[in-house]
Amino acid sequence: MNERLEAKIENARKLQDELKSMGITAELDEKTGELKMNASAFKNRR
Asked: Who contacts 32 (Cβ-Cβ below 8 Å, separation ≥6)?
């Protein structure tokens, strides 16, 4: 894995932890470093 992708995954993990602390579930794709979450989670936070 290259350094750029490793950094992206590490940042995504940090964001995932922050979202989890707010009660929002996000799924991390370990291959791409992308977070996937349901948009309704944000609507319910208003």
From this structure: none
Report which of 8, 30, 29, 11 is spatially closest to residue 19, judged by C-alpha positions.
11
Query: Could you give the CA distance from residue 17 to residue 3 in angstroms, rounded to a whole number?
Result: 21
Domain boundaries, the chain: 3-43
CB 45, CB 24: distance < 8 Å = yes
Chain position carrying tokens 């309704």: 40
Nearest of 37, 1, 35, 29 to residue 15 by alpha carbon: 35
| pTM (two decimals) | 0.76
The pLDDT tens digits of the residues spanning 3-34 come to: 999 999 999 999 999 999 988 889 999 999 99
